[in-house]
Structures are given as structure tokens and as C-alpha cells.
Amino acid sequence: MTVDRTEALEMHRKAQGKIKLSPSVAIRTKRDISLAYLQGGAIAAGEIFKERDLAYEYTGKDNRLAIVSNGTSVLGLGNYGPEAALPMIEGKCLLYKKFGDIDAIPLCINPSEPERIMDFCRMLSPTFGAINVEDIKSPMDFNIVKTLRKELDIPIFGDDMHCSSVVILGSLINALKVVEKELSTVKIVIVGAGTSAIATAELMLYGGATNIVMLNRKGIVSSDMEELSGVQRHILDQLNPEGLRGGLKEAVKGADVLIGLTGQIGAFGVDEVRSMKSRAIVFPLGRPEPEMDPLEAKEAGAEVVGCGIVEGINTMPNLKVFPGITRGLLDVRATGLNFNVLMKAAKEYADNVDPRRLSADHITPHMFSDELTPRIAEAVAQSCISEGLARLTPAPHEVLERTWNRLFGGYSARY
């Protein structure tokens, strides 16, 4: 989709921010003020002082998400800084509210040093039910999330890490059904070695993939490369089991799946697709523009194609899952998340496509599917309970019904 520059700027100028705060308590009398602020607030503070987790009961912590960014990796743009990151982060907050009824707050900050960013997140943790680390360059974002997960008792995650990997794996599960292949036997080539690529490879390996080849700008990622990050080296032993060397041409020959996570137009093309096995799957997921035109991939022989933007064939933006994942985490007051939780989310995402309608051109749920967020929230919530990551243990289907009620009013008659 082409967006008109003038129209986009005018929308932002008129809105002056895509989210706003509004009161949840009516203030009409002096008594209302006393209940909400002075005496009443002091009473609630006293209870929380005695039991810290009562902050979830007496404040908005249980529905509040911090989105923290220093703007060093703004989507498709690069290091634009915190002020320029605001339109993107505000937009994400808007989507959290629209699709998950989550009170997401944009917090764009100056520090470039990871320790200062982590200190900021540590200071935030009493106020928020979860923290989303967003648009921070790789591998800094990975290291921040990994460190804070060990320290804080709320979920710390990144959309480009965890939510993108869930969408990609969930879509691949359905694509493999269409082409009648198994995750454990296919050869998967991932072009890109940044945050999304590494997180996707990790989740696929956890889910049963055995043959993943990853490429960076210098070629196939291998142990003889000098400029690999610690995160890349950590996963190195699980990649490239055939010991391939060279570039994209060598990697993609005979591959079953080709995934682009570079954001570089022309990163691969018709020749690469034609060198793949029959019934190939091609996901050029670069944003804001894909590595190649998905239609060209189809014409070159790929049976299933997808794209990472909101319009096209089999659209796979992480917007489809981040509201549901976060809703599920918040509704059980989760202390964290792990691979099992993400796997449950990926499988629920895949299952949201009616098997009777599953086809090469329909492997992903519709963007505006009413059921998607409630079902993913339910799957995440129940998985957190099973994994011992939940402070609350709602009954089966309770989170689904509550989420449906939040978003649409009333209750779903379908479950």
C-alpha cells in the first residue's frame, strides 16, 4: 500500500499523539476527590505497603505496558533517535489499545548504553505489568531482554524478537501443511542475522526444525566469521548442519523455505526461488518493503508466499499477535514468558485459520479477525499457568471470554 506523504503528516498533525489518557473514575464532588486521591489513596497505599502484589488490585498496573525505545533501530529507517521514534511507538500503543484494550505508554529515551536502558526499565517495573523493548538496535535489545528477564518479576519482551517469531512460525506451520512437508525435515534459509532472524531461528529450532541456514551481509553465518555478536555465536552450533560455505546462491540451492528478514529490496529474487525444491515456501518479510515482490516469487515457482506488511498475500505483521500475547500475560499477572508460551501462541495463531479454508493463499488469520486476540490471549494465559509463570490462575476459557468482553462487549457464544 502506498501512503500519501501529505495525508500522513496531516493526520499526525491533527491528532497530536495517537493515544490519550482519560479518567476511569468520575470526579464530581469533594468526596470523590477524597476517595480517589487523598484519604482513599492513602488507604490503598497502606494495603500495598503490606503486600506489594496488591498494586495489581488497587492500581492500573495489571493493564499497563511500557514500550521502551531509544530509537536506534526505528522500523526501516535506522538510528533516528528517541524523538523520531515517537510516531512509531505511539502507533504501536494505539494498536495495543485497539486490538487488546491494553494501556500502552510510549517511553522514548536518550541513553545509548545498555546498562542505562536496563536501569530505566528496572525503575519502571513497580508501575507496569510488562515491558516491551522496542526499536533498539541488535544485539543490544537481545542482551537487555536476556538480562532483565533474570532480574524482574514481570514479562520483558520485544516485538521484533518474540512476536515476529510467533507469527513466522505459526504461518510456516500452516504453509507446511499446504505443501505436505514437515518442520523437522525441511531446509530453511533465513536471509538476515539480526534480532528477528535470530529469535525466529531459536523458536523454530525449539519447535523441531533441524536444518536452518542463516546469512548476514557477508554470506552464510559460520564459525570462521570474525564479526559475529555474542547472540549470533550462541546459536551458531545449531545452524547449518550441512556445513555450507559461501553466499545466498549456495545456501538456497535445494531449500524448502526461504525467509527474508533484512528490509533490503532485492536481497533475493527469481533466480534464488527457482533454485529451491519443488513446492517451495518464500516469505520476503522485510519492512517497510519486502526483499522481493511476493507475486514474482509465485511466478518463479514458489507455491506459498507471504509478506510482512499489512497488505498483500498471506500478510504476516506481528500486529496479529502482540495484542493477544500481551493480553494473556497481563491477565494472569505473569512473571515472565518462555519458549513454551511462545510455541502455544504460534500454534494458536496457526489454528485460527479454518482447516477447511487453508490453502496456498490463505495460511494466516485475517488482520481483523475478532477471534484472534481472545484465542491467543487464552493460549498464552493457560501456558503461563502450566509453566508456573502466573500469579493468577483463571479457569479455562475465562481469559478468552474476558478479552472478548473487553473488545466487543458481551460474551462469545462460540466457546
Automatic annotation (TrEMBL):
Residues 16-149 form the Malic enzyme N-terminal domain. Divalent metal cations. Prefers magnesium or manganese. A divalent metal cation binds at E134, D135, D160. Its cofactor is Mg(2+); Mn(2+). The keyword Plastid does not apply. The keyword Metal-binding applies. Residues 161-385 form the Malic enzyme NAD-binding domain. InterPro entries: Aminoacid_DH-like_N_sf (IPR046346), Malate_Decarboxylase (IPR051674), Malic_N_dom (IPR012301), Malic_N_dom_sf (IPR037062), Malic_NAD-bd (IPR012302), Malic_OxRdtase (IPR001891), NAD(P)-bd_dom_sf (IPR036291). It comes from the Bacteria. Keywords: Metal-binding, Oxidoreductase. GO terms for molecular function: malic enzyme activity; metal ion binding; NAD binding; oxidoreductase activity, acting on the CH-OH group of donors, NAD or NADP as acceptor. Belongs to the malic enzymes family. This is Malate dehydrogenase (Oxaloacetate-decarboxylating).
